[in-house]
Write a structure and sequence with these properties.
- There is one protein chain.
- By secondary structure, this protein is an alpha/beta fold.
- The protein folds into six domains: 2-197, Sandwich (Immunoglobulin-like); 299-423, Orthogonal Bundle (Neutral Protease, domain 2), CATH 1.10.390; 431-500; 534-647, no CATH class; 671-906, 3-Layer(aba) Sandwich (Rossmann fold); 921-1000, PDZ domain (Pdz3 Domain, Roll).
- An eight-stranded mixed beta sheet has the order 5-4-6-3-2-9-12-11. Strands 28-27-29-31-30-32-33 form a seven-stranded mixed beta sheet. A six-stranded mixed beta sheet has the order 1-17-18-16-15-14.
- The N and C termini lie far apart (86 Å).
């Protein structure tokens, strides 16, 4: 909310034409002799929305003066009884002299031109005079720029109660209404006026009269506001200095305001009815009585008010509940969400709240400034400095430099470096860590690491803790002031985890694992799309219009491209939207009313995907504008416009680095045989076996699984990653006996599409063929996977898009990080986003293939053979298949051991693979046939006399047209057999010759 001082910022265009008579810094008695005295008398005509006034400005010395008129109509101007001429077009009166300047004027205030700014709630420009009430702030009288002693008299209707800045308010009944007089003995930079048919309730604390002025329908809230006000005054009188005024009023306004002025706060009708306001915003406004309404701000040199007020109110209340770290994390989240590069500016340049970004800087970064200052100087010096600052600067305009002077005087050290780096630089610190590890030197443990700062280095005090087991073994603060710095920290016990800044004491960018998916990230993104489907557009029409006004680009889901998803934050309307299926697979149907949920964008960690669902247009309409007030939440739900649920997604607390994972072992005597494992999982609808493709023992385990299930009389199919879906017919034909094995291998393009030795899988396939067990080709054709890996999903043609699943879950963050580690070993030039999409597409296709089989044959189980990375930790295929079918599953992982890697880990003894005949040649298909390009060491073909450039014609009786023909011709050969090969070889002068060789294997 806003102080009376900061409210004037919205009229800064007037600054250049206002008076410069009195400068801050004079003692109050001296200032009183030099400052003008402003006697203002006003009356109102509610029916015509008109104010009539007489302003008498007593100038104590001869000086040039400029008076701003705004939109007021001036009837006459005189100085010491002599008419003063002025230029009406300029909207100012310029004169000079000493004595009394008298201005008679009138103004019409209908509240015209007021629009609701959803990013700047509580700020209302302009005034209103109506039968409902009077609310005037800003240019409702001829105004001066500098501090002035005001005396106000106001005539209002007899049934109105009127409030303005005052230590004492009196009134007299007049024939035409009630005449109020306001006594305030301190200089002000402006006054405000509010009146209405209020009910007055009064209380007292520490000699301060506490008033509540509420409309009749809300007067029941008055006692609560008074009791909370007493608590705040009691606290701040002790924490700071005694309250300087004799009275304080909480005033309900019919406009949606949130202002604080000397001696009162003006809160909108809807605001005062919110139950949490007494515990938050009320205290914020009362804190402004010291900062903004006791010590004023020189806004030409920056607005420090909101930072210190936020820190000593909103933040302090959470700190008292042990949740200060949560509030500070919210500050960092808001800054990272709203303050995009084009909206960023130094804290010293903050003048007033105009939107979310400026609020994140002025209020959020400002509060963190004072938190870091408190951390630097200590609690005692911090509060002593604030008290000293207030006493030195009361009733005058103060600056950041005045704050610095008070702190340096108490702290005893130069603080220019601190104020400069946090006030004058754009942005915030950005930290990263490398090489965190545990060292044991001379028998004592320590933790070493390197800290990095991205960009220009800040001078920082950073808290860290080192955790051993479940207890924090070491806590300390390190000083970091370089772009790169090495640290070696002694630890008390064996260190396990290093946590940097877990309580968010440093103004820094959050790391990915700390940064929650919240509404503020959607609202603050510089590139935002609102995605709708035409059939549901009517329900969301009002929401679409409002969010387009706020800068969102509306897009029909049918026009959405992968590039849009990767580069934008999305607001998706309707939980059945195909884009949600594409990203998250399945989104649960929400409860009644209007529900909005935010998730991390699976294709770009810097973006989010929000999705909303409303079961009626009215539910959506009632909730839409309120979304902007719930930026810190991940999920919100409204019923008939009332918030009934809200939550924030859990993320890491601090920058967490695991130093050493505990070493684990198993007791071999307690291990299970494969048969015992199958007994445990025999009834599972789905069994996954994760293999290492080149480990023959893993494939023997797979064979053992299906053999044991067959013995138990189970009805099941085998799903295989090794075959791609377009070749299912070739598999079926082979299993049925319609084609032979060579035709099967050729038609399924096995050697082209799966590079691993066929002998590894031959026993499995032959057992399935012999026992009538179906085999399901799970995989997507490799051309599509490769195309996505190279260019993302947008690279696919319309025909290719028909081949891929329409719903995909890309939101598994842990799986994404494991894939990122795998991606690091890929050749340069590829992008991780495309690689990630291709892997998800791969997994989703296999899950959909298995799901389709189970849907068609619900009486079957399915055993899925796939690479371990597709099965481990339930990622890859398992959870996707469960999402699609709801069926439970078990996972068997070969060889690897880790927590939660699978239901069972299989440790099979290493086995030598079966014999696979090899010629020891590198072959390539060319225009003239299959050509030898190179030989391996100890090549049998080379020993037999074959040469580079030979074109293979026959291998035994098999005609060679492709490289696969060679592999197929060899796979049945046994050790020590020979293979007969016919080749064509070019002669030096006379064309080609045919040669034949017997190559021993």
């Amino acid at each position: 909310m806003i102080t009376r001082n900061s409210m004037g910022l919205f009229l800064l265009s007037l600054a250049a034409v206002m008076t410069t008579m009195t400068r801050p810094g004079l003692a109050e008695d001296s200032q009183k002799r030099l400052s003008p005295t402003y006697n203002l008398s006003v009356s109102f005509d509610l029916q015509t929305n008109t104010l009539k006034g007489i302003a008498e400005i007593v100038l104590p010395e001869s000086t040039d003066v400029v008076v701003s008129l705004g939109n007021l109509t001036v009837m006459s101007v005189s100085l010491n009884g002599k008419t003063v001429e002025y230029n009406k077009k300029e909207g100012v009166i310029k004169t000079s002299g000493k004595g009394t300047l008298v201005i008679t004027y009138q103004g019409v205030f209908r509240g015209e031109g007021r629009t609701e700014n959803l990013e700047n709630a509580g700020v209302v420009q302009g005034g209103v005079i109506s039968t409902e009430g009077i609310s005037l702030s800003g240019n409702w009288y001829p105004s001066l720029k500098d501090l002035v002693y005001y005396r106000l008299t106001a005539l209002v209707p007899a049934d109105f109660t009127a409030i303005s800045e005052a230590d004492e308010i009196t009134y007299k009944e007049r024939p035409t209404g009630r005449e109020y007089s306001y006594s305030f003995h301190h200089p002000l930079n402006g006054i405000d006026f509010v009146a209405g048919k209020y009910r007055e309730v009064k209380g007292t604390i520490d000699g301060i009269d506490i008033y509540a002025y509420f409309f009749p329908e809300d007067v029941s809230l008055a006692e609560t506001y008074i009791e909370y006000s007493k608590k705040y005054f009691e606290m701040y009188n002790k924490l700071l200095v005694p309250y300087p005024y004799k009275r304080f009023s909480v005033v309900e306004n019919f406009l949606p305001t949130g202002y604080s002025m000397p001696t009162f706060t003006l809160l909108g009708r809807e605001v005062v009815r919110l139950p949490f306001i007494v515990e938050t915003s009320l205290g914020h406004e009362i804190t402004h009585q010291w900062f903004g309404n006791y010590v004023y701000a020189d806004f030409e040199k920056g607005n420090w008010l909101e930072g210190i007020t936020t820190y000593l109110s909103d933040h302090l209340y959470e700190e008292q509940k042990g949740k200060g770290w949560e509030y500070r994390k919210k500050i960092l989240t808001d800054y990272q969400s709203y303050v995009t590069p084009e909206k960023e500016f130094p804290l010293r340049d903050f003048l007033g709240r105009t939107g979310f970004a400026s609020m994140a800087i002025g209020y959020g970064k400002g509060a963190m400034f004072f938190h870091m200052l408190r951390t630097l100087v200590g609690d005692e010096a911090f509060y002593s400095s604030l008290r000293k600052f207030i006493e030195k600067n009361k009733f005058r305009d103060a600056t950041w430099e005045d704050i610095r002077a008070s702190f340096e005087e108490t702290y005893g050290k130069d603080l220019e470096w601190f104020f400069s780096q946090w006030l004058d630089r754009k942005g915030i610190s950005s930290l990263d860590m490398l090489d965190a590890r545990t060292l044991f030197l001379k028998g004592a443990p320590s933790v070493s690491f390197r800290l990095l700062q991205k960009g220009e280095a800040y001078r920082l005090k950073i808290p860290l803790s080192i955790v051993s087991g479940k207890e924090k073994a070491t806590e300390q603060i390190i000083e970091f002031q370089k772009e790169k710095q090495y640290f070696d920290i002694a630890a008390d016990e064996e260190p396990r985890t290093l946590i940097i800044d877990e309580n968010y004491s440093v103004m820094r960018r959050l790391q990915e694992n700390e940064y929650p998916p919240v509404i503020s990230r959607l609202l603050g993104d510089e590139k935002r799309l609102i995605v709708y489907s035409e059939k549901e557009r009517d329900i969301y029409e009002d929401l679409i219009g409002i969010f387009k006004d706020e800068g969102f680009v509306a897009k029909n889901v049918t026009d959405l491209k992968d590039e849009d998803i990767r580069t934008s934050s999305l607001f998706v309307l309707g939980n059945a939207s195909p884009v949600l299926k594409r990203l998250f697979g399945k989104v649960e149907k929400p409860e009644a009313g209007f529900v909005l949920t935010v998730k991390n964008n699976p294709l770009n960690a810097a973006k989010v995907v929000a999705y909303a669902n409303g079961n009626a247009r009215e539910e959506v309409r009632l909730a839409t504008r309120k979304i902007f007030h719930y930026g810190k939440y991940t999920t919100i739900r409204f019923e008939k416009g009332e918030n009934v649920a809200k939550e924030i997604a859990e993320t890491d607390r601090g920058m967490i680095f695991e130093l050493e994972e505990p070493v684990e072992g198993v007791a071999p005597k307690k291990s299970l045989t494969l048969e015992e494992i199958i007994d445990n999982i025999v009834d599972m609808p789905v069994i996954f076996v994760g293999e290492r493709h080149t480990n023959y023992e893993d494939h023997k385990v797979e064979l053992g699984v299906i053999m044991d299930l067959y013995k138990k009389g189970r009805k099941f199919a085998v799903g295989m990653e090794m075959f791609q879906r377009p070749f299912q017919e070739a598999i079926n034909d082979y299993l049925s006996g319609a084609i032979n094995e060579k035709e099967f291998l050729k038609r399924s393009e096995y050697f082209k599409r799966w590079s691993f030795d066929y002998q590894f899988y031959r026993e499995i396939i032959e057992f399935a063929k012999a026992k009538g067990i179906p085999i399901v080709a799970l995989n997507l054709q490799s051309e599509i996977v490769d195309k996505v890996a190279a260019g993302g999903l947008d690279a696919l043609s319309e025909e290719e898009r028909k081949e891929i699943p329409q719903d995909m879950d890309m939101a598994d963050a842990a799986y994404r990080e494991r894939l990122r580690a795998i991606f690091e070993d890929h050749p340069a030039g590829a992008t991780f986003d495309n690689f990630y999409q291709s892997q998800i597409l791969w997994d989703e296709t296999m899950a959909h293939s298995a799901a389709a089989f189970l849907k068609e044959k619900p009486e079957y189980q399915i055993v899925v053979f796939a690479g371990g990375e597709h099965v481990m930790y339930d990622s890859g295929i398992p959870q996707r298949l469960k999402r699609l079918t709801g069926k439970e599953y078990a996972t068997l992982i070969n060889g690897d051991f880790d927590d939660d890697i699978g239901n069972y880990v299989i440790f099979a003894n290493a086995l030598k693979p079966p014999f696979s005949a090899k010629l020891g040649v590198t072959l390539r298909k060319k225009d003239d046939g299959v050509v030898i390009e190179d030989f391996s060491l100890d090549s049998a073909a080379a020993t037999a006399g074959m040469k580079v450039g030979d074109v293979l014609v026959l291998v035994d009786d098999s005609k060679i047209e492709t490289v696969d023909d060679v592999r197929i011709a060899l796979y049945e050969k046994k050790p020590y057999e020979s293979v007969h090969i016919k080749v064509k070889r070019k002669r030096l002068l006379f064309g080609e010759q045919e040669l034949e060789f017997n190559v021993p294997l």
